[in-house]
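Project standup — Tuesday

K.O.: blocked on the structure for the chain from last sprint. Re-posting the sequence here as requested.
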Amino acid sequence: MEFKVNKTIDEINEKIKRKEVVVVNAIEMIDIVRKHGCIEAAKKVDVVTTGTFGTMCSSGALINFWHTKPKIKASKVWFNDVEAYGGVAAVDCYLGATAVKEGDPLNSIHPGRFNYGGGHVIEDLIAGKKVLLRAEGYGTDCYPAKEFEKEITISDLRDATLLNPRNVYQNYSVAINTTDKTIYTYMGVLKPNISNATYSSAGELSPLFNDPFYRTIGIGTRIFLGGGIGYVIYQGTQHDPDVERNERGLPKSGAGTLAVAGDMKQMNTRYIKGASILGYGVSLSLGIGVPIPIINEEMAFFCGVSDEDIQAYGYDYPNKISKTYGLVTYKELKSGTIIIDGKEVPTTPLSSYYMALEIAEELKKWILDGKFYLTKPACLIGQSSDYEPLKYVKC
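H.V.: unblocked you, prediction finished:
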């Protein structure tokens, strides 16, 4: 496909350097595309900023806590009694966001409250709080120590890298419960007999709805991550570009995901918080913003997406039941009620639209101030075999 507008990342970065770049957030772009069309919008706008803030379970911290005296080959590691995986190297470990503090009653008293876990440790470290580090080893000639214990802060750590295998889910099902009892899920508390519905996406602000075929996002894409600068390092686990899509090319169910990484020492606890999910477990609530370069009218068209364009399936969550209850738009979800089987059902978001917009605005400010430059991906993340620009793009 030949485009009438063609820009490069280098050209956009030159505009950032000269402070001539035009940046808008994803909501602002909707009106620009509607008013001017995607060709003129592509001429006017250089970057669209997106944002999302919500619970992202597949997250964690890769930590190096320096060599101890004497040295230890730490096979078991705990932070505030939350166990990290020690099978990496002598003083490297991986702390998963969903790891629960030792001694937690879990769901033995149902529903469990899960007051503290890996996500909370990550938040405490970023906040600069003291955290108790404990390590155990079996002793070797080069690593003779068998025990180590010390209160540390993030400044005591050699490296603290947020390393998340799966974030920024492109879409997610709407959760309902058709049984006659309340259930407790990672999609929140679901009341019996379809008495409520929950969903988890910022919709029109969400990064992968604004680049549905991953035309600008790939390995090396610089992003806003937890209040600092991070990078896309690969497609995320469960990345599935070949799902059913609507007439705009938007997936109707979970599709693309991103694996991301960044320096925790740059981050801000406004945008990264430990989460306790009643009856389910612990996790991490995280803010991510992705800049979408408007390199042609195709990207302007995709960034003109609005909540009324985005659809999701309603699914019955308990007992692995995968029966679908039809499609709803994010405009309907955000209205506060949807209709399921003729019944008006209240809806609740699990992600924060307010925070997603704040993140998009903060990223926009960074770019306008010349503090954030775009990167050209080393390669794009996994593509859809269904991708045909002319099939979806209507300029």
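K.O.: great, moving the ticket to review. The radius of gyration is 22 Å. The longest strand covers residues 159-167.
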